[in-house]
Amino acid sequence: MSDTQPVVVQAVRTPQGKHGGVFAETGSEELSVPLVDTMLERTGLTGTDVDDIRWGCAKQVDEQSNNIARVIALCSELGEDVPGTTIDRLCASSAEAIMSASDAIRAGQREVIIAGGVENMSRTERRKGIGSYDGIAEQYDAADLQMGQTAETVADRYDISREEQDAYGARSQQRACEATDEGRFDDEIVPIDTGEQVVEEDEGLRPGTSQEKISGLPPAFEEDGTVTAANASQISDGAAAVMLTSRGFAEEHGLEIMAEVGDHEVAGVNPEVMGIGPVPAVRGIWERNGRSADDYDLVELNEAFASQTLYCQNELGFDDDVFNVNGGAIALGHPLGASGARLPVTLIHELRKQGGGLGLSTMCVGYGQGAAVEFRVPGEK
Known about the structure:
Blueprint: E1 6-13, E2 17-18, H1 28-43, E3 52-56, H2 68-75, E4 84-87, H3 93-106, E5 112-120, H4 134-137, H5 147-157, H6 162-181, E6 192-193, E7 198-199, H7 211-214, E8 236-246, H8 247-252, E9 259-268, H9 278-289, E10 298-301, H10 306-316, H11 329-332, H12 336-353, E11 357-365, E12 369-377
Parallel strand pairs: 3-4, 3-5, 10-11
Antiparallel strand pairs: 1-8, 1-9, 2-8, 5-8, 6-7, 9-12, 11-12
Helix pairs in contact: 1-2, 3-12, 5-10
């Protein structure tokens, strides 16, 4: 095994807060710094060991501007010698941070990189829509590019019924609530002290959710539509991160290797059906590596909307017993720039609980993209 193989030696996240909820008065850097400092403490490393911090953020406005990655470095135990760059691939911003960091380590250019992301959607203004650009407006109806409308389009085009979406939305809540009750998120969550309270648990959980209870909710985007607040991801606040090193560095410093970073892929699709993006992204990995759905012990696919999640699951052929086993963004929330790291964090910890194996993290991305990354957790499998 190559000494430059990128490996994960720490994987953490904040609890995820509801829009206007527990983190509404907490700065984006205040969500991020505790993750960085926790990983340093757990590994015994210092800023002198870290080559870079790469941080995803989809809305780089207000407090999330000014290169939030560098702000985090200066506010954390990393200090002024650690450079930082902020990355925007919309919902896959922190996935891109992980991909670019792993590439740099694999190439032998860096040995230790902290990669993650943050989004405090309660505290940042909405930026202008992509349809405001003349070149885009000439090609598409701006209304068709709104995220909720793309979910309706996927449901209509691929015959995903309201009943199927509600059943999936209820399943996400039920699985996430069960995982929380069983303490399955405890190892990955770093409690956040807001000054008013210490937040230790995801805020968007709705115990007792059932398909029957949510079946009467009104559509959120079309009068006769099928997408509702209960079968779509929640607008959320949160951060997530991993510490990546080369295998050689981890072994030399006695660090536990939680996972190896495998192949990754990004893809573009029609922005009117942006939710199908995971399909070509995942298939790109499969074509290069000779894989299929049966090769994965666990899969985390971001639940932007139940309609696109169901389409992607069915199209790629993932069984329920390996797919989003602890729920997903419908229950936990989708803080845009953080979700691309939150999925691997949850995936790695769950794979460790199950004795290791090969996992896949994948997501759709705004305006017609998809991203996917593989992780292999050492163990008996």
